[in-house]
Amino acid sequence: MSLSFPPRQLYYNGKAQAATSGKSFQTINPATATPLADIQIASNADVDAAITSADRAFPAWAQTPLIARARILHKAAALLRERNDEIARVETLDSGKAFTETSTVDVTTGADVLEYYANFIGGGGLNGETTQLREDAWVYTKKSPLGVCAGIGAWNYPIQIALWKSAACLAAGNTMVYKPSEYTPLHGQTLAEIYTEAGLPDGVFNVINGAGDVGAYLTGHPLIAKVSFTGQVATGMKVAGAASGNMKYVTMELGGKSPLIVCPDAELESAVDGAMMANFYSTGQVCTNGTRVFVPRTMKAAFEKSLLEKIQYVRAGPLFDEQTNFGPLSSKVHYDKVVAYIRHGIESDRATLLCGGVEKPTVPKDLQAGFWVQPTVFTDCTDSMRIVKEEIFGPVMSILYYDTVEEAVRRANTTELGLAAGVFTKDLNLAHRVIDQLQAGITWVNTWGESPAEMAVGGWKKSGLGVENGRRGIEAWLQNKSTLVDMSGAVVSVFAKL
């Protein structure tokens, strides 16, 4: 079978490099279940070579003037925007997301983060602080990069997450070895080539390919100073434990089971729209999705009626059709997992199936082998149900009814996860009180899902460590040095003759 793309290689020392393992895997188009390209797998020696390339490049990059770094990042952002549709088409084929999404979100939001950090460092954002202690003594601080860092990407927002990690990392003066998810790897070499074209020195950004074993070897390497990981909770906990045990810095953006609370006074249509965006955008494959929707018992009939009316606007179909806004799941493995959860919700949890189910949606014949599911809504759910407690990472909404807002908040917090949360209400005083009580690192009021470059995002509890983006996001890629200068000309000593 002729593949859509040429083989993807590794990328280090400023150019594509053939893997020495002699092994490869195929990345699959989720819409059709057909292969797209052969992806070369890095051997341990290849990972060593990529890390050595990054280590060799680090001293000069760390000393590069901030304004020069900023110009390179700005150029890379401009190249991404120029090639937006071209890159988005590849993201659509690789991830299964509709082109209406990848062309308007994935590339552009990644470029936004590059521009944000280019502006930040170019405008003095990495300047330290100076404090006058007394007339003849003062303290100053300096921010320094960490060294060679590892970035482990996720499959749901491939190039966006690669940019979220690399933008702050490179702006801070570090170098990076990046491993894309084995389910959506096509963007890695493309991004590396864009960075090189923008003027990034050889070895500053490098790409290796492979599954979890390659990632484990990368993150455990003694030259790696920091690990930034996006993925599921269980894997993240293992990665964080291994990294912190070797005194590496870590940033972990993990999973969630986020609550969306609809207050009794909420505007019904807006709340339903928010719930749908929080469950069906990206086919539900978003870590911050608000999959536990808490609705006042008095609004039950109206909420369900409006939701059923709007479900028809979730349109599965050819991914490059401008009417399509709902794609397949990312892989066969993930499809089987999500369908198993839906079946469990029906057969074991005994939740009321409002719409959807285990059958595939109606799609054209050439797409029927793909990993398609229906947008699914369960109602009359209880907190003890497995579909309510565990992250499904698919288009599966659970509606839970409540009697008081205090009850809803208490139940919303009954989870080990704390990535995101939100509230819909016309009463802004109530909104702020509820948000303040919700145990989550990312929260929204009367909206859901937007994460601009200026907004630091990260989870509480088992949903993560540290934050990405915003002013705080770059701090995770720096180490601080404090210096006290005494100008008195004498050293005060307790060791003096009495």
TrEMBL record:
Reactions catalysed according to its record: an aldehyde + NAD(+) + H2O = a carboxylate + NADH + 2 H(+)
GO molecular function annotations of the record: aldehyde dehydrogenase (NAD+) activity; metal ion binding
Lineage: Eukaryota, Fungi, Dikarya, Ascomycota, Pezizomycotina
Keyword Magnesium: no
Pfam family, one: Aldedh
Gene3D superfamilies in the cross-refs: Aldehyde Dehydrogenase, Chain A, domain 1, Aldehyde Dehydrogenase, Chain A, domain 2
InterPro entries per UniProt: Ald_DH/histidinol_DH, Ald_DH_C, Ald_DH_CS_CYS, Ald_DH_CS_GLU, Ald_DH_N, Aldehyde_DH_dom
Protein name as annotated: aldehyde dehydrogenase (NAD(+))
Active site residues of this protein: 253
Known EC number: 1.2.1.3
Entry keywords, A to Z: Metal-binding, NAD, Oxidoreductase
Family: Belongs to the aldehyde dehydrogenase family.
Principal EC category: oxidoreductase
UniProt KW NAD keyword: yes
Domain spans labelled Aldehyde dehydrogenase: 21-482
Annotated SUPFAM superfamilies: ALDH-like
